[in-house]
Amino acid sequence: MAQTAVPSRAIGTVHLVGAGPGDPDLLTLRAARLITQAQLIVHDGLVDPAILAMAPANARFVSVAKSRARHTMAQDDINALLVREALAGNDVVRLKGGDPFVFGRGGEEAEACAAAGVPVSVVPGISAAMGAAAAAGIALTHRDAASIVSFVAGQCKGLTEQDWAGLAGKGRTLVIYMGVATAAAITDKLIADGLSPDIPVAVVENATRYDMRVLRGVLAGLDNLVTTHRVKSPALIIIGDVAARQNAASLARLAETVR
Length: 259
Ligand code: SAH
What we know:
The protein has 259 residues and is an alpha/beta fold. The protein has helices spanning 29-36, 49-52, 75-87, 106-115, 128-136, 183-192, 222-228, 246-258; strands at 14-18, 40-43, 60-63, 92-96, 120-123, 146-153, 171-177, 200-205, 213-218, 235-239. It binds S-adenosyl-L-homocysteine.
């Protein structure tokens, strides 16, 4: 019997796109182009509404917003959604806060796509650490203060098993993502690792957004700082001498006036 050729439908591409820390001006040109041409956008809760508003009026949006306690869609379901849409011939803009490969599960999504034969492109974004540092006037490295910078995740899950020894201290900057809810446990962990309770800390909430706040203190007072000021996610904790450098506060004020 003669075989009927089934016309093969082109497979779409999944673009893992970093949306940066919030301010739409901080998108890369490539991210902006993909968003303005998108037909399907699958996005996290962290992506600023002003960025979503750049998409064409007829674009489809799927929110897969995650928060520490509330997962609207499990990661496996997100992976399956991306693969399904691409195999159906649709290009997908998978929009993530910050950078897709920094605490963004972009690695898992890229692997799931590759396993299903779906092409993937990765568009880097400005990660929250870079956005917060710039907006708060805190140099993450500084020849007089720090030549090492580390990024860690402060979520409850696995916090005690994570080995942060040596990541914070003299000459080093530690940036903690997702650490607001666990500020007390983080403080205990770092002090148990031998860190001085007097080491400077800065907390940057809603970095690069209109409602950004920068709070400063020392490690021993971190939990109190977060509680007293009712700091909410998204916020970053920066630990190290760079957080207290004298020019940091004045730089941040200068930035306020030029916005
Ligand atoms: N992929 C993202 C990180 C996702 S994890 C990136 O590269 O930035 C989510 C955490 O990022 C939040 O809990 C918070 O710690 C941090 N974060 C993201 N956007 C932020 C912002 N605008 N201000 C402060 N912290 C932010």
